[in-house]
Amino acid sequence: MAAREAFAQHGYAGVNVADICSAADVAKGTFYRYFDSKEAVFLAAARSTVEAVGEQLDELPAPMSEPQAIEKLKLLLAPMAPLLLEVATGELRHQPNLMGVVGVITAGLASRVVPRLRTRGKAARLAAWRVVDAALVGLLRPTLGSSTSSPSSPD
Question: Structure pTM?
Answer without folding.
Answer: 0.83
